[in-house]
Amino acid sequence: MIAYRDFVPEGSEHAPAECACMDGIVFEANQWIQENGIEVLNVQTLLLPGLEGLHPRTGHGVYYIGRVERWTQALRVWYDTP
């Protein structure tokens, strides 16, 4: 089975898309992959409209619907699950 996990910058609701936070996101993703023995299938960079944060249980993005005034650059890791 496949699954994914999104990595977004801390305080992303205020961070501009051009923020240098991508290095931190990649570092965090690499740590998670290494610590958990994740078999990565694919990695995507995302530009997300109106990201409000991550769902506490699933880790998936929670988005604001309506007029988008901010965008967040994020990283999505697709991986294999047992």
Protein architecture, described:
This protein has one helix spanning 22-36; strands at residues 2-7, 39-49, 51-54, 61-63, 71-80. It has a three-stranded antiparallel sheet, with helices on one face. A two-stranded antiparallel sheet has the order 3-4. By secondary structure, the protein is α+β, with helices and mostly antiparallel strands. The chain has one domain (2-80).
Short synopsis of the structure:
The chain is α+β, with helices and mostly antiparallel strands and 82 residues long. The chain has one helix and five strands.
List the helices and strands and how they pair.
Layout: E1 2-7, H1 22-36, E2 39-49, E3 51-54, E4 61-63, E5 71-80
Antiparallel strand pairs: 1-5, 2-5, 3-4
Alpha carbon gyration radius? 13 Å
Structural class: alpha+beta
Instruction: Please state the average pLDDT score.
Output: 78
In total, the number of domains comes to 1
